[in-house]
Automatic annotation (TrEMBL):
Domain spans labelled Cysteine-rich: 4-87, 148-235
InterPro entries hit by this protein: Cys_rich_dom (IPR004017), HdrB/HdrD_reductase (IPR051278)
Keywords: Oxidoreductase
Any one GO MF annotation of this record: oxidoreductase activity
Name of the protein: Heterodisulfide reductase subunit B
Pfam families per the UniProt record, alphabetical: CCG
Superkingdom in the source lineage: Bacteria
Native source species: Desulfovibrio psychrotolerans
């Protein structure tokens, strides 16, 4: 079995701990072996690369160097922002002058030659959707979902090198294999506002509000995403969006790992469904999940 160095990212151990927990559960179910990168550090996210490319690359390079010493097949991360930073630095390190500058800062050799992928890409490459379907014990039948990819999961395409940047289908195919009804969604790669929720709240309420409006108009029971920032804006800020836009949305926003884990037999509690701000009970009742019974125990 191939082993992968696992980079959870800062949000995976804080604001999106349910993503980390459900990712580990899904990978275990599918035989994808994760080995935590010891003493990993923040990738710098947007602030680092927006202010200093060398700082951003050095933060990432330290993690690359540690992973390279682990004897693994590659590095995987659930977070699109972390993935973009990891892959961008790995590409930049191909330039000798830049490589030397970064190595002098991190004070250790960095090959920058390990494959770097998202958890979603790794799961779908190691286990085709049709193969995953054979492991389903609780089909998502009856659940109508819209897959929301966000703006950086597949962009820029020459860096991310996975799925179509304008019309990705990886989440669609996975959800269909798990038994859900996937609705065509015109905003699947639109921006939710990202971290601008801290300084331009009105922008996030407009952009994320449009995503929620369309999902509701299509008759979706839930939104499915793979991005911690997208999930936070659509879920945690849904009350703010309703107040600002005069709407009454109550749309659960799942990580794809939560629904996949549920379909593969994991319990709601193991997948941290209780961490969602918008209750998933009504959506899960559409697929006959014994949500109320489990919570009553």
């Amino acid at each position: 079995m191939l082993q992968y160095a696992y980079y959870p990212g800062c949000s995976g151990l804080s604001s999106s701990i349910e993503y980390d927990v459900s990712t580990r559960a899904l990978c275990k179910s599918l035989g994808v072996e994760l080995v935590d990168i010891p003493d990993w550090n923040c990738c710098g996210s947007t602030p680092a690369h927006a202010s200093d490319h060398l700082l951003s690359a050095s933060l990432v390079a330290r993690n690359l160097a540690i992973a390279e010493s682990m004897g693994v097949a590659g590095i995987i991360t659930p977070c699109p922002s972390c993935l973009k930073n990891l892959k961008t630095t790995s590409l930049r390190m191909q330039r000798k002058s830049f490589h030397e500058k970064v190595e002098s800062i991190v004070e250790r050799p960095v090959r920058a030659d390990l494959p770097i992928r998202s958890v979603l890409q790794t799961v779908l490459e190691q286990c085709e959707p049709e193969a995953i379907a054979k492991h389903v014990s609780k089909p998502l039948k009856g659940l109508k979902v819209v897959p929301y990819y966000g703006c950086i999961m597949n962009r820029p395409p020459d860096v991310m090198t996975f799925d179509d940047p304008e019309n990705p289908t990886s989440l669609d195919r996975l959800m269909s294999a798990l038994g859900a009804e996937v609705l065509p969604f015109p905003h699947k790669v639109d921006c939710c506002g990202a971290s601008l929720g801290l300084i331009r709240r009105e922008l996030v309420t407009r952009l994320s509000g449009r995503i929620l409006d369309t999902a509701a108009a299509l008759g979706a029971d839930a939104i499915v995403t793979a991005c911690p920032m997208c999930q936070m804006n659509l879920d945690m800020r849904q009350g703010q969006i309703n107040r600002a836009n005069g709407t009454r949305h109550s749309m659960p926003v799942f990580y794809y790992t939560q629904l996949a884990g549920l379909a593969l037999g994991q319990s709601e509690s193991c997948l941290c469904m209780d961490k969602l701000c918008v209750s998933p009970s009504r959506a899960l009742s559409q697929m006959g999940t014994p949500a109320q019974e489990e919570r009553a125990r």
